Amino acid sequence: MITSLTAEQRSRLPEFVKKWTAIGLSTEPADRSRAEKAILGLYRLAKLREPRIIWLPCPISAALSTIVYAKIISYAQIAKQQAVGSAVDLAIDSAIDLAVSSAVGSAVGSAIDSAVDLAIDSAIDLAVDSAIDLAVNSAVGSAIDSAVGSAVGSAIDSAVDLAVSSAVGSAVGSAIGSAVDLAASSAIDLAVNSAVGSAVGSAGNAFFGGSLWNAGYSAWVDFFNEACDAAIDRSFIEITASAGFCWPLDGVCFASDRPAEIHLDHAGRLHRDDAPAIVYRETGWGLYCWHGYRVPDDRAWIIADKTRITAEAILREPNAEIRRIMCEITAFEPIRRLAKTVSADMDGNGQPRRLLRARVGDEDIRIVEVVNGSTEPDGSRRKFLLGAMPGRTPHEAIAASYGISPRHYREAVRT
């Protein structure tokens, strides 16, 4: 068991941070042969029967396929156990034929006779954790987790993982709560529906995040295996390095591709000002994000079609965060005509500037109007509207935006 690290081993920590951050943000297509080998290895490690592996182009299609599969299997099992009657059996058979042909595909059809074991995900987790615990002292493991795993995890989580997993979770919850009941009839009572809902919910949420979610943990495991020669099964690392989200069930595993595009701002947050910040192949599914904030699908037009952002649209928007984004996207122009001057002064270059305030919804929007220090080719100077920090004058508000006391803030040079 590893109980301490050498200086040489510690010197390699940055290497693994860099390696796994790149893996976590990879937009290369999934390496399916590598991923499938790793999935089979995880099932063997957990002493589970070999699964059929079904590939989907994005996490949403994989999650919904998992739900449909789990729902069909759950109803089939309950119908057999409770002998609810031939009419229900016929409904189930028809539903299976319909769902398999239209939503999941023939590959799932051949796997329908297997049961959905809702403990598969936990079994794999336990097997991986146990193998690592035997090789690495907990104190050393915790120290390296902070140095490597946390660094990678923070980079990936803040940028992509939280947004994607949240979107997948919402889709799963919506599908569980509102999907058409494929096999139920008046003969199946509330207890049966409740049991199915519980099974489907567990199956839909039992997933691995692949490169987006598990990069931090995999960096930690990889360090001990590669830099410290710890005898650790690499199946979990391999699936993280080669694929996207995966849903492991009993006898079947739904695996999804990695993103085709990931766009970040200077702070490493998901951001794109004219299209989805993260996009998947084939389905085109993706997420619109503005400097790390996930814009809801029904508000995606504020990025995709900015011409629709008017003062009236901003005023009608009930969500304060969306209102703020709408103002930022349009540089506050739509609400300029609603704003009133609070105070005015001159900047360090002798150009006028104003502190403005407008009532938008239930909040006050404060903005500073400034004049560009450089002239345009025609000799004119452009005006800009900036979000204002607290302050009674433009000078105080601008100084506050830099975290500097107004008494000490002076504009010496403008570039």
Which secondary structure elements does this structure contain, and how are they paired or packed?
Elements: H1 7-11, H2 13-24, H3 32-45, E1 52-56, H4 59-82, H5 86-104, H6 106-109, H7 120-135, H8 138-178, H9 190-205, H10 210-226, H11 235-242, E2 246-249, E3 252-256, E4 259-262, E5 278-280, E6 286-290, E7 293-295, H12 301-304, H13 311-316, H14 320-329, H15 333-336, E8 340-346, E9 352-360, E10 363-371, E11 383-387, H16 394-401
Parallel strand pairs: 1-3
Antiparallel strand pairs: 2-3, 4-5, 5-6, 6-7, 8-9, 9-10, 10-11
Q: What is the count of β-strands?
A: 11
pLDDT < 50 stretches: 87-93, 95-118, 171-201
Multimeric organization: single chain
Q: Report, as a whole number of angstroms, the end-to-end distance.
A: 58 Å
- Let me know the largest β-sheet: 4 strands, antiparallel
- Round the mean pLDDT to the nearest integer and report it: 72
Order of helices and strands: HHHEHHHHHHHHEEEEEEHHHHEEEEH
What general outline do the C-alpha atoms trace? elongated
Strand proportion, as a percent range, falls in: 5-15%
**Radius of gyration over all CA atoms, rounded:** 27 Å
Helix percentage range: 40-55%
Q: How does the helix and strand content classify structurally?
A: alpha+beta
Number of helices: 16
User: What spatial order of strands do you see in the largest sheet?
Assistant: 4-5-6-7
Number of structural domains: 2
